[in-house]
Amino acid sequence: MEDLIAKAADLLARARNAIALTGAGISTESGIPDFRSPGGLWERVDPAEFSIDRFLQNPGRFWRIHLDMKRSGDFDLASAKPNPAHFALARMEELEILKCVITQNVDNLHQRAGSTEVVEFHGNLLRAACMKCRSLEPIEDVEERLLQGTEETPRCKKCGGVVKPDAVFFGEAIPSKAMAVSQVQTQRCDVLLVVGSSLQVFPAAQIPITAKMKSPAAKVVEINRDPSALHREVTDILLLGSAGEILQRLLRAVEDRIADRML
Ligand code: APR
């Protein structure tokens, strides 16, 4: 592993446009379950509950499931804290090594760790959005109205439209700005870090494929507890293990290379 980390650190220290694509696996060490590992969320909740069609059939039912998951601690994002993996990526941005993080996660932990260039590919579950006028409000405000029993189906305070968590549901389009920015960043990148993703969900999983197919191809460093579905096609350096531990070691190795350059 040490020699692989050294190779990955060499790539990052020399990179002109390194970016990261992160998935739920970067947040498991913050206490948020991922989806497809043993014990992951999809073992406890039917993913179909998170399809836009199911939501539109009965929004109030979804919001009750949402509250149950929060109460059970299954998916309580508000109390989660960034872990060393998030802080390591934020530090790499500070060192001007990492140009942006494209995240599939909706937990806001990259921003709370200090990353500023964050593309929320699947939205953000700490916000709620009106499906009619698109106005946003903190999701706690909606949860409050539900808990007070004043609303069966949360309504927008401005226009009365149906309110939905501002995360991308299955069957919904990726927010256009997030899609556009991630396409530009992917085309421009020379190193792509993939951290904590099984790469089973498109179009996010298209990012490493595009990074490899473009010319010149980017180098892909994958940090995962289990190899992703695409590691044979896209991964140049596969670092298996804890994202927190590996990213801290990788950051130290990159900082050593930067310090040596200063000498
Ligand atoms: N360190 C490193 N890797 C980890 C860790 C960890 N501590 N914990 C889990 N992993 C890895 C798993 O081995 C797996 O490869 O993270 C990956 C998580 O995969 P998924 O659960 O499929 O999560 P993700 O790839 O983000 O899912 C993509 O699917 O359900 C939708 O919208 C949802 O954004 C999500 C998308």
Quick summary:
Helix 1 crosses helix 10 (243-262) and helix 7 packs parallel to helix 8 (206-213). Helix content is 39%, strand content 17%. Strand 8 (219-224), helix 9 (231-234) and strand 9 form a beta-alpha-beta unit.
Secondary structure tally: strands? 9
What overall form do the CA principal axes indicate?
elongated
At the fold tier of CATH, the topology name of the largest domain is Rossmann fold
Query: Sheet with the most strands?
Result: 6 strands, parallel
**Tally the helices: what do you get?**
10
List the strand order in the largest sheet: 3-2-1-7-8-9
Number of domains: 2
CATH class of the largest domain: Alpha Beta
Mean pLDDT: 95
In CATH, the architecture of the largest domain is 3-Layer(aba) Sandwich
| H/E element order | HEHHHEHEEEHEHEHEHEH
Rounded radius of gyration (Å): 19 Å
Assign the structural class, choosing from mainly alpha, mainly beta, alpha/beta, alpha+beta, or little secondary structure: alpha/beta
CATH superfamily membership of the largest domain, which one? TPP-binding domain
Low-confidence stretches: none
Query: Which molecules other than protein and nucleic acid are bound?
Result: adenosine-5-diphosphoribose
State the separation between the terminal residues, measured CA to CA: 27 Å
Strand content: 15-25%
Helix content: 25-40%
